[in-house]
Amino acid sequence: MPAKPAPAKAAPARQPKVGFVSLGCPKALVDSERILTQLKVEGYEIVPSYDRADVVVVNTCGFIESAVQESLDAIGEAIAENGRVIVTGCLGKRPEEIRAAHPGVLAISGPQDYASVMGAVHAALPPKHDPFTDLLPAPRKRRKDEGMIEGVGLKLTPRHYAYLKISEGCNHRCSFCIIPSMRGDLVSRPVDEVLREAEKLALGGVKELLVVSQDTSAYGVDLKYAARTWRDREYSTRMTDLARGLGELGIWTRLHYVYPYPHVDEVIPLMAEGRILPYLDLPLQHASPRVLKAMKRPAAAEKQLERILRWREVCPELTIRSTFIVGFPGETEDDFEQLLDFLDAAELDRVGAFAYSPVTGAKANGLPGAVPEEVKQERLARFMALQAEISAEKLERKVGTVQRVLIDAIDGELAIGRSRADAPEIDGTVQVQDGAARRLKPGQFVDVRILGADEHDLYGRVA
Predict the structure, then answer these.
(1) Dist. CA 399–CA 332, nearest whole Å
(2) Considering Cα of 422, then 180, then 284, then 220, what sign does the dihedral take?
(3) Using an 8 Å Cβ cutoff, are 430 and 463 in contact?
(4) Which of 67, 111, 203, 382 meets the CB 3.0–4.6 Å disulfide criterion with 61?
(5) Residue 177: pLDDT band by 50, 70, 90 thresholds?
(6) Rounded CA separation 419/232 (Å)
(7) CA-CA distance, 376 to 45, in Å (whole number)?
């Protein structure tokens, strides 16, 4: 009797492929990392091009009108290149605006709504079912090139630095801002949860943590600063205790979005001791009490100047970055001169400035005294020219010193890195002229003797 032919093997199910576009601030980047991690866990392949993707997810920004337009343009490009698009993020809080421009999007959800994003992906592209592996636990070991860190997930940043988001939302109601309407009120993560994530990142090779939130100084107020245990020690869920805990990890820790509340004074000694980086990102916005009041911001710029000078007495190496808005409704020439005087006296190290732009839904849109666009741009140019002088002078003082530098990239003969005074993407760099010859690598620390400077960057050779 002839043998029965063996049954034909079914072709393996094709792995579903997702394209991903991430826009916006570091907080949105962390949202993207969490969504991508869940996609990887569920067996989706993340692909880098539209033509290889079965569906595309666009994580949007909606803070200012230029960001809204960038998000709408990105959605339009994804639709044109792929056709199947899921939208999430801050602009997702305005679905009617997205639908009006792009009625063909498959689904829309707001920021931090990971369940809705995954539900939309499942509906558009069901995950591959493998009866032999779906009931088994996920493997603990992953290839390094997947960008996964055990216990944390996929990171979109280089392996040597990572953003650590400690809370969502904001309790402030600044008249120019719509963040609370998109991300809600402050919701803090318990301090032990944050410290465990930070510890896993450090064990995974991260050399620098960038602490981000909408309001880092308010961390824990919603939890009434509840105490939790980490490494057999008790920590309160507040910024100062969090900084103490992060200081135990022995890696760079950088604080962003720190409102100048009184208890900020408590973290300056930790910086002087080398526990965390001597770096503060303070969103001051203006210096005129009248403008600050219209912005619904703390209106005591003279006290802020006193505090900055006092902080530098405690920690002379302190680097302060800030952002400002010029041309806010009602800003007079006198208000603007007060801002320039403050800038000149404070000698801030890193400064960003923006001409005021109306944001849909912001209360500032209804304020009287709109500043003409040409006046806004003229003031912005004067502001940035003054800051360029201040920055160039401060960086010139570093010529001849030796700076600890974390290498980010190799570019020809140069190694491009950052000193303790430089956050990635927003601050300056240190160009190590003999970096390639010294075989430096990304993620490596090196001491660099500074030989030159301009208004943004430093230049030097390995010390």
Answers:
(1) 39
(2) negative
(3) no
(4) 67
(5) confident
(6) 33
(7) 46
